[in-house]
Design a protein that fits this description.
The protein is mostly beta strands. The protein folds into two domains: 5-131, Sandwich (Jelly Rolls); 138-240, Immunoglobulins (Immunoglobulin-like, Sandwich), CATH 2.60.40.10. Helices cover 3% and strands 37% of the residues. It has one helix and 14 strands; from the N terminus they run βββββββββαβββββ. The protein has a five-stranded mixed beta sheet, with no helix packed on it. β11 and β12 form a beta hairpin. The protein starts with a strand and ends with a strand.
Length: 242
Amino acid sequence: MREYLMGEFSEALVVGKRYEFSFAVANGDVYDHSAAGLGVSDLGVAFSTEELVQTDRDPIATHPQFSMTHVQYYHGWKVIKFAFTADKKFKFFTFGMFGSDIDKQIQSFEGPGRSKAYYFVDDFSIRDLTSELQTNNFPYRGDSSDLFSLESSTFVPTAFSPNSDGLNDVFMPSLGSNRGALLRVFDRSGAMIWESAEEQPNWSGITMAGGDARPGVYLWTLKVIVEDGSVEELSGPVTLLQ
């Protein structure tokens, strides 16, 4: 049984333009008498020129432009952002889990006896990256056209707060299957302060010298060797909050 959230843009997207789409998601608090408490993978967003139709509570059989391949579960609100280039005059967006249950992951986060996965979603927004990249000067070195150059299986947080409260303590790009990845973090002067080389690289706000990085904006670069042997190179800003 599936449920979807659908919305309509105020105007159709422009073909060839690059956009950033964002939303907030949370699972909320779970009580003993509730059946909720499961987290699932492959939640995604599909864009369409016409409203997608769901038959009864059956899955919608379409391929979303963006999909979170890992299991998602958040007690507090988590902001998700991704970028894409419109290849059609999209007018609608749909959030949910698409396609069959094959290869989908399910995990209980609240103990045994849980049978449902509930997600609260809010604050959907979209902005035109093409116009902003043409008019703004980013305070980072490198080609600004690479900013937010994310594949559909990858999303990268734009902020984190390493304060040990259990929420967004680590900056960790969510990657699909790969043969290895290299994450580097630079300060505003261009000096590299962190490097992580593993399948799921991350940064906890510690510098290579062993100290705590100051709150502020940093630049990350990411190289990923995907399963077919090709290399993806991504980059963008991340804000370290107190």
